[in-house]
Amino acid sequence: TDTLQVGELAKKLNKDTSEIIKKLMGLGIMATINQELDKEAIELIAADYDVEVEEEIIVDETEFENYEVVDDEKDMQVRPPVVTIMGHVDHGKTTLLDAIRNTKVTAGEAGGITQHIGAYQITNNGKQITFLDTPGHAAFTTMRARGAQVTDITILVVAADDGVMPQTVEAINHAKAAEVPIIVAVNKMDKEAANPDRVMQELTEHGLVSEAWGGDTIFVNVSAIKGDGIDDLLEMINLVSEVEELKANPNRTAAGTVIEAQLDKGRGSVATLLVQSGTLNVGDPIVVGHTYGRVRAMVNDLGRRVKSVGPSTPVEITGLNDVPQAGDPFMVFADEKKARQVGESRFKKQQDAQRKESSKLNLDDLFNQI
Ligand code: GDP
Ligand code: MG
Questions:
Q1: Does residue 94 line the site of ligand 1, with CB under 6 A?
Q2: Which of 122, 158, 205, 307 is the most buried (most CB within 10 A)?
Q3: 266: annotated binding-site residue?
């Protein structure tokens, strides 16, 4: 809006309405308190008080919510897949993630010290793969509850000596609901009691039929502890990734999702972001959930400082005014002013919501006391 009522203008200038009306009369404008003034009249009056008129930038929330801006097909480029590992407790998720990271990251990137930032990237046969190393279930439930979809492929880990368990089924349901393709890693093949056929049989009942049995689900036998089958598994990830034709436009302002965030004693708010489209640069004005700022520094999964990162890359950033939450969307804005306005508007909304929440609690407390 670039009009204001006389009364509103008086309030903004901190003057009596009658005084403004008098000034307007002097300018040949006969006005009442509710009269709408156009931009020119507002500027004239403001200039008279030596006040500069700043145009209000309308905060377009929809722009933020629908941050998956539709890109032109010709601008889309192949991007690495983002992989989550899920499965029943103790079936070897953490061991498998470590095995993949150890065989690939340290070998290829000599001198790099792996940092825990909630995600890491490896290179297999010249192709990058991003692994989320937050517990798979949490990644799915908290992220999806917030409307974020970050996973392209799920590795379902099933221990060959234990078979399908409750959390295995839960993981299958999460992946199916999100329409994310599943690759089954039958783990602990080194064990005496390993029975991969039983795992195949049991998974059939949940709609996962192996290619060997005429279905279309990829099964890979692995031993996370010995490192057996890891290369095959990575090969299959690359294959599925190609079939999925995962693409993003790297040549636009960045948008994506928070993987994890916390308050660091020395560095302040530290957030791991997964860039999903565009390129994120140091210095970019950014809104992250209800927080905002400028990207002060970026550190990758090897603890190295980086200046810019493209799609499917996880990176730890500092420079935010507050700590966002896992699953929050982030978006870079063309200028800092707009980022601050959108950030402040979102921050206020979040606080209002919290205040409402706590006043509800207070009422409840009151009733409890009665
Ligand atoms: P998570 O709960 O799914 O993350 O499982 P962990 O990775 O913590 O593994 C649970 C236990 O299984 C640990 O004691 C691991 O050492 C063991 N384990 C994991 N993978 C293998 C494997 O391939 N072979 C054997 N024998 N043990 C394994
Ligand atoms: Mg674990």
A1: yes
A2: 158
A3: no
Using CA atoms of 354, 358, 361, 363 in order, give the dihedral in degrees to the nearest 10: -120
* Residue 110, pLDDT above cutoff 80: no
135 is in an annotated binding site: yes
- Out of 16-20, 316-320, 344-348, 365-369, the most confident range is 316-320
Please answer whether residues 17 and 34 qualify as being in contact, where contact means their C-beta atoms are separated by less than 8 angstroms: no
Q: Cα separation of 349 and 356, whole Å?
A: 11
For helices 6-13 and 17-26, give the axis angle rounded to 10 degrees.
110
pLDDT of residue 366 exceeding 80: no
Say if residues 258 and 289 touch (Cβ distance below 8 Å). yes
Pick from 91, 95, 157, 189 the residue to mutate for probing ligand 1's pocket: most ligand atoms within 8 Å of its CB: 95
Distances 51 to 48, 58, 68 between C-alpha atoms, Å: 7, 21, 40
Residue nearest to atom 18 of ligand 1 (CA): 92
Task: Please give the Cα distance from 291 to 321 (Å, whole number).
Answer: 6
Span 25-50, pLDDT tens digits: 888 888 888 888 888 888 888 888 88
Euclidean distance between CA atoms 310 and 293, whole angstroms: 20
Q: Residue 335 has which token pair? A: 């200028």
Q: Which letter does DSSP use for residue 73 in this model?
A: G
CA–CA separation, 126 and 339 (whole Å): 37
- H or E stretch including 39? helix 39-48
Report d(CA 160, CA 156) in Å as an integer.
12
Arithmetic mean of pLDDT, 87-103: 92
Q: Which residue has the higher pLDDT, 351 or 253?
A: 253
Indicate the average pLDDT of the chain.
87
To which residue do tokens 């020119």 refer? 40
pLDDT tens sequence across 122-161: 999 999 999 998 765 666 677 766 667 889 999 999 999 9
Q: What is the token pair recorded at 368?
A: 């409890």
